[in-house]
Amino acid sequence: MIIGMLFGVLFVMLFLGVPIAICLGIAVCVAIVASGNLNLLPAVAQRMFTQADNFTLMAVPFFILAGNIMEKGGISKRLIDFIEILMRRIPGRLSCITVVASAFFGAISGSNPATVAAIGGITVPRMKQKGYPEDVAAAVAASGGTLGVVIPPSIPMVTYAVTASVSVGTMFMAGVIPGLLLAAVLIATNIVICKKYDAAENGKVTLKAFAHSFKEALLAIFMPVIILGGIYGGLFTPTESAAVACVYAFIISVFVYKELTLKDIYEIFRKSTVSSAVVLFVVSMSAPFAWFMTNQNIPTFIASSVLGLFTNKVALLLMINVILLFLGCFLETQSIILLVTPILLPIAASLGLSPVALGIIIIINTSIGMITPPMAVNLFVASGIANTSIGKISKRIIPYLCIEVATLLVMTFIPAIITWLPGIMGV
């Protein structure tokens, strides 16, 4: 009865369009009242405060701020210009550049929509000038944006690490190979799909042009190196690295590139504050929800029920991915992580799947959800940039969706792809 009340209220309110944080809070309160143990109600506020009072979560607003500074400060543009010179001989050059630049930007911003907005805002107009159809250009930008949360550092990785009680550094390291693998398959897909719009160039790049472009992009290239190198070199924690990223991006944008104005700075801080508040409110509200489920042994009950229905490991792993992909169609990344992690952890443990591997699988699934209608945040951002309809982009995104799902399944059934690098690095 309590399980039905908890999830019944939750999904009814989600269906009605109520924000996820409010849904979580009201569902818990209703379930507590239904249980008859009103003494548990004060614990809702206590758990919210305890969850928010977390040093690790401070990385979230800092990474959001760093991504917004990069977008406005000219760092993204210089990075793209340099990659364009390196990839001029590749068919479908501009589409491939979008993927590579998205991977670089994702290594700093940790956000899918931010990656689409920052990189797509520059490459989509260039692709349209080159002869790419608007919907194709938008699909390329949207698919490239899925790398934003997979390439470390990543905001959802921080959220998962806090929820699952695993090391943020380990999660970051585990995301490197999956992120590069997804980037590689997207580049290969773009070469096949987009070569008819953008043929390879045979002309040579002068040493002077290369040197100038490299000089302009050097400080941008060093940014993810400084962040990740500092974390694994023991110079600072993931949270401190996010603050370093903000300071670095600000200094470069204001004093070196000189593209940030006072008006831009105000808008950047306003936008970052709003985005951070939304994320942190959802995370803090998830704490009483997860606590109540644990208090009532709900995750254990669901896990045992699922294991009773599916005894085959392959079927279980497929079911986990199907559920996550389905949720990704309707909910955003943070919400899914907070909802499913307590439930899936015991199931993963029974399958011999490490919490770190499970975390990467969840994050990739939710990232794919960003290009899967109706939620499809990446598609909405890309459609605005390309000035085309969601319907047209949805058709063009299908090949990218299929190849990403196929790559996800490979990593699901061969989790060593995820855990190998953290294992050899000893993190």
TrEMBL record:
Main location group: membrane
Keywords from the UniProt entry: Cell inner membrane, Cell membrane, Membrane, Transmembrane, Transmembrane helix
Keyword Translocase found: no
The organism's place on the tree of life at top rank: Bacteria
Transmembrane segments: 7-34, 54-70, 171-193, 214-235, 241-260, 272-294, 314-331, 343-364, 370-390, 397-421
Membrane topology: Multi-pass membrane protein
Keyword NADP: no
InterPro entries: DctM, TRAP_DctM
Signal peptide: none
Compartments where found: Cell inner membrane
Sequence ranges assigned to domain TRAP C4-dicarboxylate transport system permease DctM subunit in this UniProt record: 7-417
NCBIfam families tied to this protein: dctM
Protein name: TRAP transporter large permease subunit
Organism from which the protein derives: Blautia caccae
